[in-house]
Design a protein that fits this description.
Blueprint: E1 19-21, H1 24-33, E2 40-42, E3 62-65, H2 70-85, E4 90-93, E5 123-126, H3 131-138, E6 142-145, E7 165-166, H4 171-176, H5 195-206
Parallel strand pairs: 1-2, 3-4, 3-5, 5-6, 6-7
């Protein structure tokens, strides 16, 4: 998870010729880490640059957005099952790249629908998934799951935004104290698509 060129044995030698960033904030972050500006560009977000305000219901389900890291996902599934056993409504969203065989909970606890198609939620629990950012943009309470025995990468957050980090034993108490935040501005992270950049790079790769 070391994204600085200083973490490469070859430095910039084996770094990509061009790094396409989804937004200016990520461009600035990579530039500060040592990537030359001429190797960076902002191509915009192919998954979309606008996020709807999401319905919040303090009595609604808590959604767990699992990462594509098996050890962390398993801990989150266990935490979700514990929460459910204590009377909470729980929805678990697997990472889209994770195989169905990796799912360990009763089938009815899982959803494949995106965040914007979920019912009104009480909160979103995430680890490193961008679903956490979507929750902040939509004005939903969010908690960052802190796994036991493993260091999880800390997700990028918009300037001025903080998300409480909580481990499995502290999850229920943290959920009880959450309030809906003001929707966060993700513009610096998810810029509109710059198709001229994408076409130029794709054409160059196909040449």
């Amino acid at each position: 998870w070391g994204i600085s060129p200083a973490s490469n044995r070859d430095g910039l030698g084996d770094a990509p010729d061009i790094i396409v960033c989804t937004g200016r904030a990520l461009f600035d972050e990579l530039h500060a880490l040592g990537y030359p500006a001429e190797r960076l560009c902002v191509g915009g977000s192919l998954r979309g640059a606008t996020f709807p305000v999401l319905a919040h219901d303090p009595d609604g389900p808590v959604m767990f957005a699992l990462p594509n890291i098996k050890t962390i996902a398993r801990q989150m599934e266990t935490a979700a099952l514990t929460l459910r056993s204590r009377g909470w409504k729980v929805i678990v969203k697997p990472h889209p790249l994770a195989p169905a065989a990796a799912q360990t909970l009763p089938r009815e606890m899982y959803t494949q629908a995106p965040l914007c198609q979920q019912p009104a939620l009480a909160a979103v629990v995430f680890a490193i998934s961008s679903v956490g950012l979507e929750a902040l943009a939509g004005g939903l309470p969010a908690l960052r799951f802190r796994p036991a025995g493993i260091i999880a990468p800390i997700p990028a957050l918009p300037a001025g935004e903080t998300v409480p980090a909580v481990d499995a034993p502290g999850l229920e108490a943290a959920l009880r104290g959450l309030a809906a935040p003001k929707p966060a501005d993700l513009g610096p992270y998810y810029a509109p698509q710059n198709w001229s950049i994408w076409r130029r790079l794709v054409d160059a790769g196909n040449a």
